[in-house]
Design brief:
The chain is α/β, with parallel strands linked by helices and 232 residues long. The protein has a single domain, classed as Aldolase class I (TIM Barrel). The protein has 10 helices and 8 strands. Strand 4, helix 5 and strand 5 form a beta-alpha-beta unit. The longest helix is centred in the first third of the chain and has 18 residues. The protein is globular, with a radius of gyration of 16 Å. It starts with 13 loop residues before the first helix and ends in a 6-residue tail after the last helix.
Length: 232
Amino acid sequence: MPTAFPSTQNSLPPHLLRPRLQGLYVITDERMGGGHLAIARAALDGGAAIIQLRDKTSAWRQLLVVAHELRHMTRAAGALFFVNDRVDLALAAQADGVHLGPDDMPVKAAHRILGPHRLIGASCATPDEARAATLAGADYIAAGAIFGTSTKSDAGAAIGVAMLGKIKAATSLPVAAIGGINRDNITAISLTAVPMACVISAVAKAGDEAAMTAATRELVQKFTSNSTPECL
């Protein structure tokens, strides 16, 4: 019997999804407190434009249930939904795409599996890495870690805002700043004119859902009031 792959009929082609790669990008991580669904719900209520499911430890079946619910929530809110690392999970949950780190599946291989209706983000810390990811077919670049962070043990040393500007100049793709971004430094990110800012603990560690929503709303306001995202 042939393998049955999830339908892509509800997925928009990349040229329609890419213009939506802008705004506050919230990554859910249960290690920060709360849960994936609570973090995402609060973030969406606060105006987040993109949600990413990041979970390195939970069982696949458990994650699929969570991913399906996040897909429903983000679609209802008009937000994009990405899965970290797991190409199979992104496909099964009909996510808008997957985000890949330097030790994950290569971008070209992921595109062959995901097909033409899913976006792929790639983590980069240098202009050369950004250029390579662009040539490989990535749809956006996550540049960082911009500031020091303890959230991701593999984030590496902080590269700083100046390097963010160099990475942005090295690629034609939309760039998301990531790493240690919070209410006190997100304005510096917005002034670089990158279209996306990724946060994890700045939302997840804010407290209960009401506090996480308020934190998201403040981050969105600070980021969008100073940024002038380019038309993608």
